[in-house]
Design goal:
Rossmann fold, 5-stranded antiparallel sheet, 4 domains, binds glycine, 5-stranded parallel sheet, D-amino Acid Aminotransferase, Chain A, domain 1, Dna Ligase, domain 1, globular, 426 residues, single chain, alpha+beta, binds adenosine monophosphate
């Protein structure tokens, strides 16, 4: 099988690695890929989706897998399908679950799927009226995609009103903030659940926990994610069942009823309040770095899983996972997430320790090849992934590997998976 992966981050690199160990995959293209995906396949520098579809046809690509949300929201799947190509990911309409928070909230309401109480509005008076009904903290969200920055947790009503006013005037996020959601604050702990669906059937992946804050102890600013691990012991059978019955199943059914069947990765960002799951957000793609810890746990060949999901045939595969844990530690550049850092060369020690070689690997993300050398050029540069029989073991391997990777200004959190280890379940 010839496979193309759209995207350039650690998530796409992880999908590439899973495809690489899949014997039925002969060739992998990355569009556009990064400085390290060249080791796994060929990078394709075509950004226009029609041209990319043409390329896929010319090179007999059997399956395209889309990593990031932007191409999905922009309709890459529709374009490829019109050309008769097989592509894994949601249509532009189904991608609205991530692309529009208002679409998502109204969908949840219609299908009785638990979420925070809210209003959606483009009027400041309405926003202010609802803010007065809620007790702080109060959550204000812009409707559209704002690169993860469109959510304000206001500590006072005044602050909530100011945030709403800034969004509605277009000052904060331009057109993405012309409509806003105001919602109650849910006080609990967060979980990410991923389901792969072919529009009708679905399979739920092991639960992962991300660490969004920059600094140890969940302090500092929000980032795209500084580390993740899976499966997390923060979920038990009972909760898993509730999530499936109350959230995943009705979402897949509801989207089919709306005639926008959801094909792809449904990423449910949940808040668990007193043992009850609520949807905070949906994403229509794998999380990053969650994907980096889920892919190595996949026992079923990756191409089979994605191909069957893209051809409405998920029920014919028995999807299996290894009975192991994976921990991923993001190694970021000096100024992440505040700004760009100077490119710096990456030096990786020869890994001589046999166990480490076998139990850990790097997923490259913000890296470029400059005159034959690998440089850290992005915010999140790479992810050190460890695999083990326990979370502790997986984490030890991941951290050992961080010590073998060097570039000026490298930084990482030292406490990935701390909640799981405190829970002492593994
Ligand atoms: P979202 O992009 O909607 O997931 O929001 C980003 C982050 O804001 C979430 O991961 C939560 O940490 C937080 N958040 C969003 N909505 C709420 C809410 N209603 N209650 C508490 N925290 C929230
Ligand atoms: N790690 C969170 C995300 O990908 O949105």
């Amino acid at each position: 099988m010839i496979v193309m992966v759209v995207g350039s981050g650690g998530r796409e690199y992880a999908i590439g690695l899973a495809l690489k160990r899949d014997k039925s995959v002969e060739e992998i293209f990355f569009a556009p890929g990064n400085g390290a995906t060249l080791e796994l396949g060929e990078n394709v520098d075509i950004s226009d989706y029609n041209e990319l579809a043409q390329f896929a046809k010319e090179r007999s690509v059997d399956l395209t897998i889309v990593g990031p949300e932007a191409p999905l929201v922009e309709g890459i799947v529709d374009i490829f399908k019109e050309q008769g190509l097989t592509i894994f990911g949601p249509s532009q309409k189904a991608a609205l679950l991530e692309g529009s928070k208002i679409f998502m909230k109204n969908f949840l309401k219609k299908y009785n799927i638990p979420t925070a109480r809210y209003i959606e509005t483009s009027l400041m008076e309405e926003a202010a009226e609802f803010i007065d009904e809620l007790s702080p903290p109060i959550v204000v969200k812009a409707d559209g995609l704002c690169a993860g920055k469109g959510v304000i947790i206001a500590q006072t009503r005044q602050e909530a009103k100011e945030a709403a006013a800034k969004m509605l005037s277009g000052e904060a996020f331009g057109p993405a903030g012309e409509r806003v959601i105001v919602e109650e604050f849910l006080d609990g702990y967060e979980l990410s659940i991923f389901a792969i669906s072919d529009g009708k059937d679905y399979t739920i992946l092991p639960a992962a926990q991300d660490h969004k804050r920059l600094l140890d102890g969940d302090k500092g600013p929000n980032t795209g994610g500084m580390g993740a691990y899976a499966p997390t012991p923060l979920i038990d059978e009972k909760l898993y069942k509730k999530i499936e019955e109350r959230i995943i199943a009705p979402t897949i059914e509801g989207m089919a009823k709306e005639e926008t069947p959801f094909e792809g990765v449904l990423f449910a960002g949940l808040m668990i309040v007193n043992g009850e799951p609520y949807v905070l957000e949906f994403n229509v793609r794998f999380g990053d770095p969650e994907c980096e810890v889920l892919m190595p746990l996949l026992k079923t060949p990756a191409s089979e899983l994605f191909y069957k999901a893209a051809t409405k045939d998920l029920k014919s595969v028995d999807i299996e996972f290894f009975d192991k844990y994976a921990v991923g530690v993001v190694v970021a550049s000096q100024n992440y997430p505040y700004g760009k850092s100077k490119p710096s060369e990456i030096i990786i020690d020869d890994i001589v320790h046999g166990d480490l070689k076998e139990h850990a690997h790097i997923c490259f993300a913000g890296v470029s090849l400059i005159e034959g050398k690998l440089y850290a050029t992005g915010g999140r540069v790479l992810v050190c992934v460890g695999i083990g029989d326990t979370i502790q073991e997986a984490r030890d391997y991941a951290y050992l590997l961080t010590g073998q990777v060097h570039f000026a200004g490298k930084k990482f959190r030292a406490d990935i998976a701390y909640q799981a280890l405190q829970a002492d379940v593994s």
